[in-house]
Design a protein that fits this description.
single chain; mainly alpha; three-stranded antiparallel sheet; globular
Length: 170
């Protein structure tokens, strides 16, 4: 639960952009992340900010571009997690996603693509955590998962590419 809450908390701080929904803004291996997906992320976080009475940066501002890049980082991370889970032989099936959405009080049929993919990535992380930390002592679980995540990021470093205007700031 703590891991899922941390993941959701990290995701909540982010946002994104978009126009031509089919144009790729980044690739993780053979998987494209589109402007449309990035726009869904922005719309989600903009709605969350409005619901909480928080300001949201205006499109075209430096602050907006910052949140946009952070959201894209989240989408890349999700893709890395899902691809890694699949490679480990632990894909997340649609029934798990529907069950989790219903347990959270959200109707599976009404959940937007962003919410569904958030849940899918959370479940993938949990399955990976169980696999990676199996046999670890309670004290060693965090270190084992941290080490695995670092290895995952190194493995994907050469497999992630961005369109020029969407590249992370260095």
């Amino acid at each position: 639960m703590k891991r899922a809450a941390a993941f959701a908390g990290a995701a909540f701080a982010l946002a994104g952009c978009g126009s031509d929904s089919g144009s790729a803004v980044a690739h993780v291996g053979d998987t494209a992340i589109t402007k449309g997906q990035l726009q869904q992320a922005v719309d989600h976080f903009k709605d969350e900010a409005a619901a909480e009475g928080r300001p949201f940066p205006k499109s075209g501002t430096d602050a907006y571009r910052t949140v946009e890049r952070q959201a894209l980082g989240l989408l890349v991370y999700r893709s890395e997690l899902l691809q890694s889970a699949d490679k480990l032989g632990i894909p997340v099936d649609e029934q798990e996603v529907q069950t989790r959405l219903q347990a959270s009080g959200e109707e599976a049929a009404e959940a937007g693509a962003f919410a569904r993919e958030t849940v899918r990535a959370q479940i993938a992380y949990e399955h990976i955590y169980e696999r990676v930390t199996a046999g670890s002592t309670p004290a060693g679980r965090e270190a084992a998962m941290r080490k695995w995540l670092e290895q995952m990021k190194r493995a994907y470093a050469r497999r992630v590419s961005y369109e020029a205007e969407f590249a992370p700031a260095s």
